[in-house]
Amino acid sequence: MPGTRPRLSWRTGRASAGFDARRIELTLDGGEPVTHTEEATGQIGVAWPFDPLAARARGTVRVGVRSGGEWSPWSAPLAFENPPLSAEDWRARFVSPRTLGATLTAAPLLSRTVELPAAVTRARLHVTALGLHVTRINGERVTDEELAPGWTSYANRLRFRTHDVTALLRAGGNEITALLGNGWYRGRLYWRGERAFYGDRLALLAQLEIECADGSTHLVVTDESWRAHDTGVLADDLYDGQTTDLRAGRGPAEPVDVLDEPLDRLFPADTPPVRPVAVVPGGVPFRSPSGALLVDFGENLVGWVRLRVRGRPGQEIVVRHAEVLEHGELGTRPLRSAKATDRYLLAGGGAEVLEPLLTFHGFRYASLDGVEPGDIEAIDAIVLSSDLRPTGRFRCSDPDVQTLHDNVVRSMRGNFLDVPTDCPQRDERLGWTGDIQVFAPTAAFIADCSAFLASWLRDLAAEQFEDGCVPFVVPNIHHNILPAAAAWGDAATIVPWTLYERYGDPEVLREQYPSMRAWVERLNAFAGEDGLWTGRFQFGDWLDPAAPPDAPGAARTDQDLVATAHFVRSTDLLARAAEVLGRQDDVERYRALAAKVRAAFAAAYVTPGGRLMNDTPTAYAMALLWDLLPTPAQRAAAGARLADVVRANGFRVATGFVGTPLIADALTDAGYPHLAYRLLLERSCPSWLYPVTMGATTIWERWDSMLPDGRINPGQMTSFNHYALGAVADWLHRRVAGLAPAAPGYREIDVRPLPGHGLTWAEAELETRYGTAAVAWRVADGTLTLDVEVPPGAHATVHLPGRTPERVGAGKHHRQAPLPATPARAETIADAVDDAALWSRLTAIMAAEGIAGDEASAAALAARGLPLPLAELAGVVAPRATPERVEELRRFFDAAVAAHTS
């Protein structure tokens, strides 16, 4: 990030991995090198050791380290250049069309010409807008960034970017133009249809700094000399789409107003821009049952359709978007009030390229009205996303699990569009705090989202209310609501800690600490003396599959239990953050507070025997993972009860937003990894793999967004691109593949894979701050083969069945170990339920005999006697049958068991 005191991170080669000193050399343009040397071992987020840098400072920096008494060669120099850093560095002012560009009218274009006396040797454009801007110099775009300047808490933070435009300028006449769009600033936001949430005037701020070959310098800024024009972009809205008349040229010049907008909210870009990250060709257009011309892009994506067509002047072509088909037609009901429609009026006279620039859509399918297939020369989908560097890769032997993971990646790509949104298609697309809170660990593996989420957290802190309450959405558009919801507000503590844990830089904790502490203090005030957070609005275990379509918050897990559990969780993390930052008084205070709330939770919700008052998977998962059970005996009992609840539900998912990221880890830690696998591999609804069997290419909002009969779920919230329920991918990375951080930034790695249980191999690879870490395992002939790669500067502890844990250093390591033998025969009813193949045989008998219709209902019957011997299964599932009938069923079951074990 640019600034007065940037922080430095670097990687070392294996020979320098154990360095004990470092040196950093700074060379400013026109100056002599300055070197700082110190005895230190850190290499992530190293503090700037020199004098503060000024605005527009340019230079290079390089590093070296000492290992074994020898200094390494210098790294390659890294060039840097600071942009404007304060309001005083700007001469430009915001300008807005005086008579054009009113709400619901054509998008305005601002322009300015400039004469230059000689060739340009260096030019920088610093630019932002109130609204969206597409800026060009001499007809060429200054950047491939889309939807600039993105969405932030505009009242507090307005992002600008600096572009090298040297190659776009020339001696003589030049023209700068900027097309302005409504975007988030003035377009429709929220399902209530509000417009102009941040302001009713679009405006541009641009400062062009030029150096010419003759030694002259020139400053071109937005001021009253600019002019405004109408354009052929007749309408633009993020939800509704864009209407463009390609016949229309630039309108006559009109004056602009200089606005008195504050410049102290400006900040240089701190996150990668939104860019086209892929082009997906459309399939051959086909006709729907109603005769509509449709195109299928093969995957659910975010962006827009680009067409190349031929037609007559004034011909209207309409492109509508949808994620799914229902009965062969575009399924647009999930869009709610969002029109998601782009319209074009052709100029005629040749091939024309049609694509919007001031909107985006979430879709797999599009309808093309007003054009015949023979007039279409090309159809592509332009995929947009924040251009984050991919860092993680996961592969496994089960094709459906692999598709599940691919869908998680695709959903992250579509919803990490400047803000971590809930969905990209309907009249919402908001930065819901609860969604990213549960998904952040998964995201941090898939791509380097450290800067992306750190920027979003700055908005969270800026939007946080004075009493510490955290908005439901960030940027916040619910200004009339004072929210405080468990799991949602806890993004203030959980997301910063996740970034520290996964990337190793404590700066995010230092920066967010006031926000973290304010949230916990707000919870403490809510809870009062008894330590329980009760009696207030909560989302709870949102979208529990048992909740009715029109009541997504009606979960089985008590909302107050969820709230108090999160109170403990956030207080624990705050105490840990205080320890990292050396705030010892806060460490003691918040450890004591966490202990108090933990005791209150146990007194209110935990029985002496380890059962929870709320007998749900989500309740047990939180209690097990967050140390809410006072004694080892209670923890063991709770783990066993969780296993039985999962069995009784037929291994169908019974958790919502809160429980879903936790359930597989809770089962694994409690000693039931085979049941976590059974949950993972279940394909009936609700399950992670049910959408895969239905052809999903992204993660759905609901477990049953598409019903088994092909109808769209009747609920008003039915997105087909919603990453939250894909948070299980974090368990795939850490536990299934076995690549888990054991110290911040993966400086220590815990290699503890879960081989077998339905998979024959799995592998994960991650570009950490230290380099590549990888784990790959395979099972064959009863032997586990494990390959581990550890980056320089890191260590790993490798766990193999029947072996003592082994700590290894940088490099590649190959290990083998025999797998423990599995029991040859099921002894109890629980053993039979846990064995997928055997239980399928037994369930088939129950279905044929009219006892149970499917595996889930059979499991519910068997739950009455899980600890009993398998020989008693017949009496358990048919308690009212005659002795003769029970004996007959026993013979059927015995035969199935014998066939299974033979």
From TrEMBL:
Domain of life: Bacteria
UniProt keyword terms in alphabetical order: Hydrolase
Principal EC category: hydrolase
Domain Alpha-L-rhamnosidase six-hairpin glycosidase: 391-736
Boundaries of every Bacterial alpha-L-rhamnosidase N-terminal domain copy: 119-248
Swiss-Prot/TrEMBL catalytic activity: Hydrolysis of terminal non-reducing alpha-L-rhamnose residues in alpha-L-rhamnosides
Family annotation (InterPro entries): 6-hairpin_glycosidase_sf, 6hp_glycosidase-like_sf, Alpha_rhamnosid, Bac_rhamnosid6H, Bac_rhamnosid_C, Bac_rhamnosid_N, Rhamnosid_concanavalin
Alpha-L-rhamnosidase C-terminal domain sequence ranges: 738-812
Name the UniProt record assigns to this protein: alpha-L-rhamnosidase
